[in-house]
Amino acid sequence: MKALIYTTLMMASLQASAQTVVLDSYFNNEQKKDANGVLRSWHYKWSEKEMSGFSILGDLFLKHGADTATLYEAPDAANLRNADVYIIVDPDNEKENPAPAFVEKKHINAIYKWVKKGGVLLLMGNDSANAELQRFSELSGRFGITFTNKSRNMVKGKDLPTGAVHIPANHAVFPSIKKAYLKEISVLSLRRPAKAVIKEGEDVIMAVAKVGKGTVFAVGDPWLYNEYVDGTRLTPDYENPAAAEDLVKWLLQQVKRKR
Fold this sequence. Notes:
By secondary structure, the chain is of the alpha/beta class. It has helices at residues 8-12, 55-63, 77-80, 105-116, 134-140, 240-254; strands at residues 3-6, 20-24, 30-33, 39-42, 67-71, 85-89, 120-124, 145-152, 164-166, 179-181, 185-190, 195-200, 203-211, 214-219.
């Protein structure tokens, strides 16, 4: 399997047998200069092997038989048609991007219709200081989920216990782990059809919504980037590497869309 730069034309040539996992780079499009002084999109990218990247997560999707792709355009019916899983992470605010692309009604309608047909949507927010949550919640709200301005797990320095999230035994999404590490989380607020799948006390950390043939998974932190899944930054009791694999397998199992 392979990683692809996503365009509508490229997607048309993919083998129908391979599930395709598309990572947004339209709403999350932070820019910084590379070694040659050229501005590049960065932060939570498949190809980004630095601690800020998603290269390890992308490799897990490839390991489990999917193709990975990146969508640099606004989502619409045409460019979502051949996506099986669509991931939006940490949408830009003005602090991160002087010209952020915000979620609009037309994007929400396109994504909602795609989910109803069987698409699997993964939404990863962040705390309100580091992501645009109001418009993002207009999208998630179509599925009964709101990313709130209430933040928790505000870790100071290396105080890892502050970032602990406990996983119940025999969990449907994370069957192989007991504890994960998430910091600076946007707590979720839910209404039907969304249901909490991970809570700490009364705070909803992760949620799932079933709409039509599709599935939405939401979490208030981009917790599976390289820094916290490479096995070097956390003590072994924080099982983020195994959690990443559990989530990858679960997401791919939810795909029911027929192209």
